[in-house]
Write the structure tokens for this entry.
Amino acid sequence: MIKLSPKLSQKLSYLFLFLATILAIIPGVLIISIIIAKGWSVFFTLKFLTSMPTSGMLKGGILPAIIGTFLLVIISIFFVLPIGVGAAIYLNEYSKNNLFTKIIKLAIINLAGVPSIVYGLFGLGIFVIYLKLGVSIIAGALTLSMMELPVVITTAYGALNSVPLSFREASLSLGVSRWKTIVHIVLPNAIPGILTGAVLSTARIAGETAPLLFTAVAFYTPHLPHSIRDQVMILPYHLYITATQIPNMEENRIFATALALLIIVLSMNFIAIIARIYFRKNRKW
Amino acid sequence: MVDKIKVKNLSCYYNKKCVLESLDINIEQNKILSIMGPANSGKTTFLRTLNRMNDFNVNYLRKGEVYLDGYSIFCMNMENLRKRVGMLFAMPIPLPMSIYENIIYAPKCLNIILSKSEQNIIVEQALRDASLWDEVKDRLNSSAMKISGGQQQRLCIARILAVNPEIILFDEPCSGLDPISTAKVEESMIELKRKYTIVLVTNNVKQASRVSDKTAFFLMGKLVEINKTDELFVSPKKKQTEDYITGRFG
Ligand SMILES: Nc1ncnc2c1ncn2[C@@H]1O[C@H](COP(=O)(O)OP(=O)(O)O)[C@@H](O)[C@H]1O
Ligand SMILES: [Mg+2]
């Protein structure tokens, strides 16, 4: 073995850690810069964002895909928030710390790791076929909310848990009931954390294709959706088909679609970060 | 002498370990009873049993009875009991809202009052009774987290007064406060005994002798001695009590 002086080995390990960090962020930087470089020219012909695709997707814009993505995400949040927060309240405030509760918590953690295609097949079986919702926005949104549920429960649980126990005790000691204590003291102080978690989980699913493949997605729709029973186009799937299924597709159009998806997801993350900073600053305890 | 609370053969356990043993105490109406004793002698457990704050703790178990005006508190509705028996904790716990909202919070939740003017009256009265009104009357809408520790503790007293209890339990209310704030809290306590029955847990022997009518001495989960404060401090009957009040203890 060569013996290095402590100073040199210190420097070498710093260098190694620094290089590892650089290596870790290079792919991200490359992806974003290439997408922007190739996509921005088409992206900023604003018609691209605001018009329907034409000529078998070779011309026109991506409006229906943008709208489809937004619809699915927003509707799914309406389902997932009340159920997720309700479950988190039960787990954090009411459940006893017994085997049953431990199993539930373990199950929730594991649900977060189920592959999204499995959720897609499950959604196909339950919502599309069994509940006869058909391939539709509502079936897709329900499938997405199942996927978000573990994340929302976990973040809401954490947010509720971070409200100091002493607040609950102060309220209870005044003769206020447990439920009113939760509604008036615990929830208001947990809402920032709950919402941040919800936005983050939304950003995660906005880019998902697999759970929607059999439940909501159409290759092409000639018009915008009229009802939640319609099929929709979504950005990630549209990206996939324009990149692989359509010959003679102009490359910049593909990258412009990717740019649109990237901007939606990143701006949601950005909103969540800003909201978190804002609420931290205004936190009253 | 009316006994507001009668404790009969009360024992308390955490994880099956006994921390209060066969306690018998009577608490007189409109008097201040102070309970002193070294740390871990079960004082807090006793208070938390009186308004059943410990009922949420799954490791906690009790035997024996506590009667409030002759009725067993363990058969009462928990919320009603806590409304009648308020509790002030060692550390001030203002809720994260304004001074005004802190006080009106419980009455609102308990549906006691309705109109804005009635609310104003309750807030002012509670703050006056807790000797805090003059210091905060110009900033009722500012956050309760921003006032000093002593003011926060008196705000917590005012918050209890606003639900109009019969008994107030103080758990070392001055342990985190400076001498001047302590004097103010003590002052409001003496004012309060005209309307309320007070149990004051304190690790400060002087405080017990200053404010209370009766004093009890707890040691390792047992009631060693209870007597009128002047008598207990002049001629304690038990050696342990004497050692404790003369500071020769541990
Ligand atoms: N929540 C709890 N769980 C388990 N043991 C506890 C709990 N609270 C207090 N104890 C124990 O009970 C005994 C009495 O505590 P406490 O009533 O807080 O005494 P004091 O208020 O006189 O200091 C101590 O030995 C303490 O460790
Ligand atoms: Mg204590």
Chain A has a mean pLDDT of 91. The longest strand of chain A covers residues 53-54. Chain A touches chain B at residues 96-97, 166-167, 169-177, 180, 184-185, 189, 284-285 (CB under 8 Å).
